[in-house]
């Protein structure tokens, strides 16, 4: 998984029926110290994350699908699976 | 699979229900010479690793296999703790 900062959400009325109820979030991958890294990506939300939250994003299809839609096989490859409170012992 | 150094714990109260009770760690992937290689990642721990330890981890759907029986959504899982740095032996001395 990677750490990312939630930038906002993407509204798409027309989307795959398997995740018609889901929220699609725009997230910026970050390093453990919070600095941005690489291009922003989209991820389905499974934990009610909000704009500005530091989150954990899983980047694998089966995990993303089961986490955010409850079953495997949805056409997604990323999902937010946790909201980070803090990181301990990081050196 | 790849070697990595455990950098710290990630504390996340709100997480996917299938991740409840699982320990999340920040890891820095390493090459065969134990030099940092690639970006730091968040891994689920399956072996009781701690900060500072040399570990190895697995990526992809297979990362959820250590938690068979519960469908843990992870693409990065710590699956072993290397006994010591001296136990990483590279033929010829360089990877």
Description:
Chain A is 10% helix and 37% strand. By secondary structure, chain A is mainly beta. In chain A, strands 1-2-3-5-4 form a five-stranded mixed β-barrel. Chain A is built from one helix and six strands. Chain A has a single domain (2-83), classed as Beta Barrel (OB fold (Dihydrolipoamide Acetyltransferase, E2P)), CATH 2.40.50. Chain B is mainly beta. Chain B has a single domain (2-87), classed as OB fold (Dihydrolipoamide Acetyltransferase, E2P). A five-stranded mixed barrel of chain B has the order 1-3-4-6-5. The radius of gyration of chain B is 14 Å and the shape is elongated. In chain B, 37% of the residues are buried.
How would you describe this structure in keywords?
heterodimer, A: 91 residues, mainly beta, OB fold (Dihydrolipoamide Acetyltransferase, E2P), 1 helix, 6 strands, B: 95 residues, five-stranded mixed β-barrel, 0% helix
List the helices and strands and how they pair.
The complex is a heterodimer of chains A (91) and B (95).
Chain A: E1 2-10, E2 24-30, E3 41-45, E4 54-58, H1 61-69, E5 79-83, E6 86-88
Parallel strand pairs in A: 3-5
Antiparallel strand pairs in A: 1-2, 1-4, 2-3, 4-5
Chain B: E1 2-11, E2 14-15, E3 24-30, E4 41-45, E5 54-59, E6 76-81
Parallel strand pairs in B: 4-6
Antiparallel strand pairs in B: 1-3, 1-5, 3-4, 5-6
């Amino acid at each position: 998984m990677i750490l990312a900062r939630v930038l906002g959400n993407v509204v798409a009325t027309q989307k795959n029926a398997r995740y018609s109820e889901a929220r699609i979030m725009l997230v910026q991958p970050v390093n453990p110290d919070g600095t941005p890294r690489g291009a922003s990506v989209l991820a389905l939300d499974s934990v009610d994350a909000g704009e500005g939250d530091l989150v954990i994003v899983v980047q694998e299809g089966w995990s993303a699908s089961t986490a955010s839609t409850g079953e495997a096989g949805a056409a997604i490859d990323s999902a937010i699976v946790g909201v980070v409170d803090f990181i301990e012992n990081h050196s | 699979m790849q070697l990595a150094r455990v950098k710290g714990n990630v504390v996340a109260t709100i997480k996917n229900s299938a991740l409840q009770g699982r320990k999340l760690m920040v890891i820095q992937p390493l090459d065969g010479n134990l030099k940092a290689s690639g970006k730091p990642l968040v891994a689920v721990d399956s072996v009781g690793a701690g900060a500072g330890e040399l570990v190895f981890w697995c990526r992809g759907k297979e990362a959820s296999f250590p938690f068979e029986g519960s469908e843990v959504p992870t693409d990065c899982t710590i699956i072993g703790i290397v006994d010591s740095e001296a136990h990483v032996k590279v033929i010829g001395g360089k990877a």
